[in-house]
């Protein structure tokens, strides 16, 4: 652990004076020059050749150059499907609040910091280390004594040699140990999940581009103009008219020539091919990010049972992400909280409550407990299912108990009368028809359904 703290620039008595400044090349009055000069990322005009070259450069042993690869990561997040499933996964780690507890009781000083907006964003940034390969953040205190953090641009940090780079692409920089309260999460040479997703995004972009061209050519009407080959004025007038009438495809040719358009034999099938190709890569992206497809796209083959299985897989992935965050908080960030002036001795970070259970699953659990005869608290049931408790709850409850008691007494009274009317075996008339045993059996089952409530002093420990 000491080696880990040293590598992250942990200083037991350090403050926030040695804060990393990130900025552009434009000088701002009153501020010191930035430690990191940021540049706008390249977002467009990438292909598979660029991807392969970027991965090779990033995997270099002696000089790992990741600038172009990280630009491609930013570009990939412009994909609507990828950004959607990525946001869905990140929501899974921010919906359950985290507390710092000591002896089972929350520490209000630290919990107040954990309820701040910065902590929610921090959880997202830490999970993104799985997609980028690493995340580097620096913590500090603002003027009000509250914790804040800065996400260090990944293009300006060399995780292999632990150097902060002034300009992206530099081969050498400042040791990260020079700065206070630095947290590094991830692996030194890993490229993250985005490296696996990039081919899918690039192939999909190429497919969408070809699909757009297909729609532009075959989805819009083509105008045809003809003119006399010897009439130059007519040709010029036709060209001017064609330009003024829009951007649809147009063919202008002399009367003596012939124009033929050779179209695809099955335009509908060709369009479906582009669509199926795009949906194929969308499904692969969903599987890699969420672990499933049916929670985002059920299609015609989706069933409720299969969708439930996929939802469980997604929940398992979210649970793994949440455990990942707790490990960071309890093993890596306690020292930083202590360095910032917060008492973390003898406590730990925990989730405030367990994962939410689906209402239908909870209803099945309640039914099972009821069938087992286990007593349940009515107030808990109302709270669990979000149903407002009736204002005249006590009166309704009492009326129900009166009805149950009356039904029990009625059934027991009829049974007693029936037993008194039955003759003994010795005086039984052999010609008399036997009683309907089916009705009697049904009556017995009905009586057993309404079990007599235990009296005071006979209740269980539940």
Automatic annotation (TrEMBL):
Compositionally biased spans, kind Acidic residues: 418-427
Chain positions covered by the region annotation Disordered: 407-439
InterPro entries hit by this protein: Portal_Mu (IPR009279)
Name this polypeptide is given: DUF935 family protein
Organism expressing this protein natively: Segatella copri
């Amino acid at each position: 652990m000491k080696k880990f703290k040293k590598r992250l620039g942990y200083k037991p008595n350090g403050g926030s004076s040695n804060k990393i400044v990130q900025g552009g090349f434009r000088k701002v009055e009153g501020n010191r020059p930035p430690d990191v000069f940021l540049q706008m990322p390249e977002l467009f005009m990438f292909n598979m050749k660029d991807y392969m070259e970027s991965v090779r450069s990033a995997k270099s042993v002696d000089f790992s150059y990741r600038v172009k690869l990280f630009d491609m990561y930013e570009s990939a997040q412009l994909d609507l499907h990828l950004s959607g499933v990525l946001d869905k996964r990140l929501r899974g780690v921010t919906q359950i609040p985290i507390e710092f507890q000591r002896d089972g009781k929350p520490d209000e000083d630290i919990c107040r910091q954990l309820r701040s907006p910065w902590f929610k964003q921090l959880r997202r940034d830490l999970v993104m280390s799985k997609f980028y390969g690493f995340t580097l953040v620096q913590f500090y205190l603002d003027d009000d004594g509250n914790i804040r953090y800065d996400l260090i641009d990944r293009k300006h940090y060399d995780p292999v040699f632990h150097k902060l780079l002034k300009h992206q692409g530099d081969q050498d920089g400042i040791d990260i140990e020079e700065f206070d309260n630095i947290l590094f999460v991830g692996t030194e040479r890993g490229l993250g999940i985005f490296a696996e997703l990039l081919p899918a995004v690039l192939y999909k972009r190429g497919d969408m581009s070809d699909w757009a061209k297909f729609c532009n050519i075959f989805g819009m009407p083509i105008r045809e103009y003809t003119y006399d080959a010897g009439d130059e004025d007519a040709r010029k007038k036709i060209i001017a008219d064609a330009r003024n009438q829009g951007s649809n495809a147009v063919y202008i040719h002399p009367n003596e020539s012939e124009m033929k358009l050779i179209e695809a034999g099955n335009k509908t099938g060709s369009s479906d091919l582009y669509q199926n190709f795009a949906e194929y890569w969308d499904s692969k992206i969903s599987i890699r990010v969420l672990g499933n497809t049916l929670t985002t796209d059920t299609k015609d083959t989706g069933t409720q049972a299969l969708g439930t299985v996929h939802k469980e897989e997604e929940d398992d992935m979210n649970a793994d992400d949440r455990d990942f965050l707790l490990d960071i908080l309890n093993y890596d960030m306690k020292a930083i909280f202590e360095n910032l002036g917060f008492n973390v001795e003898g406590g730990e970070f925990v989730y405030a409550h367990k994962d939410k259970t689906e209402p239908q699953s909870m209803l099945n659990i309640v039914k099972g407990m009821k069938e087992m005869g286990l007593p349940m608290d009515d107030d808990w049931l109302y709270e669990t299912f979000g149903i407002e408790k009736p204002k005249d709850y006590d009166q309704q409850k009492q009326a129900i108990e009166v009805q149950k008691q009356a039904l029990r007494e009625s059934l027991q009274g009829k049974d007693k009368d029936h037993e008194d009317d039955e003759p003994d075996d010795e005086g039984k008339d052999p010609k008399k028809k036997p009683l309907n045993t089916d009705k009697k059996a049904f009556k017995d089952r009905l009586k057993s359904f309404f079990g007599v409530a235990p009296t005071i002093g006979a209740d269980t420990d539940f």
